[in-house]
Amino acid sequence: MSLSKIPLSFSWAGLLPVGVTAFMVAYEYTGLPQVALAASGLAVAAVAVFSFGVRASRVAFVLIGLALVIWAALTTTNWFAATGTAMQRGAMVMALFTALSVIRNAAMTSPAIVECGRFLARQRPGLRYSALTIGGHLFGLILLYGSISRLGTLATESTAREPDREVRIQRTRRMMIAIQRGFASTLCWSPLGFSMIITVSVVPGASWGAAALPGIFSAVMVLAIGWGLDALYKPRKAVLAKAAETERWSEQLRPLLVLLGVVLLGVALLHAVTGVEVIGAVMSLVPVVAVLWIAFQQPPEEQTRLRHLCQRSTQFVTRELPSYRGEIVLLFMAGFIGSLGAFLLVPLVQGLGLDLQAVPPWIIVAAMVWIIPLTGQLGMNPILAVSLLVPVLPSPETMGISPTALVVAITGGWALSGATSPFTASVLLAAALGKVSPWRAGIGWNGIYALVAGSALTLWALTLSFLW
């Protein structure tokens, strides 16, 4: 929905997710249950308000959540506490989305970032895939799936002037695939992504510090596999295209690399110095960096920096956040349903006599790489799938494996889902920009890639489960 068409009734409802973020940050640093309760209450209020302006599929998630609450109340004695925990999980997801939306808002109006994207899209054919997949990774660390929108738009602009229709179609497809895979690889390790933060929160004994390096190796591996498949399958006709600008890499990428350095090192430092969890460091640091970034951007003529900052802040709260109401409802409900559903599912599995502790650990680790992308094909959000399934599994300690191995398997599967599921925002954006169906942009473009990368990720996760 266009920002200019936000209904007046939703305008100031954007204050609700902002309040959720503020309370969740305070909770991360204080641990006070009253603060978490306030965040949960505001999050439920936000979902209640925004549910009146979203698609029926989003409302269906709200109804499923209400049905689970009723089921829990009728069948368990501690349903109230479980519902509160689920509300807190949903509030955490909403707060993280809001915090990351702030820096995405700042990046979208930065001339240096826009020029960096154009520079990557202008590369000669032989270098363009590598430039865009690395760019998709770097942009994805900050913009999340907004990286596909930003880089994809610039990429399609660069191909629009190509007179040969076949070359134009093939070039657009390859550019979108590169950006998709670059973004998906961030899900293997990024401390700013839902994949790592949710996974670490549900796997007992896991931490981002322990999983970061193995996750980075996963990302490098899937990036290399994507590059290899592109080199194998790229059409030879595209080589005839006119070469483009390839100079000034360090100059053009410097603003993005500096921003990434500030955010990633700042999060790691804040985590190490204060002891706060990574999600608390992300939610508290990222909005501050974004506000400072906007303050240093050149304001319009006849407008002071302070007035420009106030205007941008007001527009973000009253226009941009309400425009994301569908995503806000979906993300909250995915976290809520996953948490409460797992609470109900664990005794149900035990009652059926299913002893997952009897399953060899290597089978569980390998299965997690594949289950998440498979459920993604059925429309299940990875947040929901991970929150629902992982609590049912035996703990890593019980299985005799490192928590890191399970984290690597889950985030690897999450990355595959991000590249193939026709229901994810990343694939939907790529499909819209590439003018193809979501199924084509997902499993059609990345099916072979998912099989090869999934096999490599499975071997890597199993190696960690035996050696780490």
UniProtKB/TrEMBL annotation:
Q: Which UniProt keywords apply?
A: Membrane, Transmembrane, Transmembrane helix
Keyword Transmembrane among UniProt keywords: yes
The residue ranges crossing the membrane are 6-27, 34-54, 60-81, 93-114, 183-203, 209-233, 253-272, 278-296, 328-350, 362-393, 405-431, 443-467
What protein name does the entry list?
H+/citrate symporter
User: Which species is the source of this protein?
Assistant: Paracoccus liaowanqingii
